[in-house]
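Just wondering, does anyone understand what follows?

——
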Amino acid sequence: MSEETLWMMVLGHEIWLEKRGKENGSEELSVMYGHNMRPDGAVNLSRLQPVLFNPDGSKGLPTLKAIQDKVIMQFAAAADGYYTAYVDMGVAIWSRNNEGYKEGPKFKFKDVTYAGAFHQMAKFIVPVGNAGEFSGKPFHGILEIVPGGASCQVGSDAAFTVMYEDKPLVGVDVKAVSKKEGKEMAIVKTDRSGVARIPITAEGEWMFLARHVDSSKKVSEEFDESVFINTLVMEAR
């Protein structure tokens, strides 16, 4: 993403993955950046790390490439089943003073009033062939959104478990955005089991976003807290 818009992740911009199709036998996903599934700027390839898990849980070999103003994730699917793809931005530290936000730890700048370590990830589950029964599980990252099914059904609730450090996270907001409607459709808190049940009211792609702030994960003179953001895009039929 351009450096001019990258700082906006502090205010609510996020990355997400969208289904692109197939090219020469490889599955393709688009890496997007913006807000509420509305793109805002190009993704900087050097900041992204692709991660893939095959249906048997082993790691795959995804690649990223830039095509004009987009970044495309590609991977070969050698067997039927569910492939879980991630794009991981790693950690970016942003500090704020009276001049605005600057990238870097707070000791680098004067009069810093806030500094946060932001870790963004995006997730997409790709069914291939006769994928069979779906069993959701966390594979990668400190914050995970685990769906109860491989897709969402219009007119029904979709269930999502939010995991933090491999444990269900209670009382965190899960935001739901419909690409077709072009807006936020619901914000639901996870229950005592870490589950959010979200009504699906339109067909097409939906993005589900969880954000968790951990003030215990701080480093003196560098940042005051760690902020984890994960998005999951799924199809509603």
User: Anything to note?
Assistant: The longest strand covers residues 81-97. The chain has a mean pLDDT of 92. The two ends are 31 Å apart (CA to CA). The helical segments are 3-6.
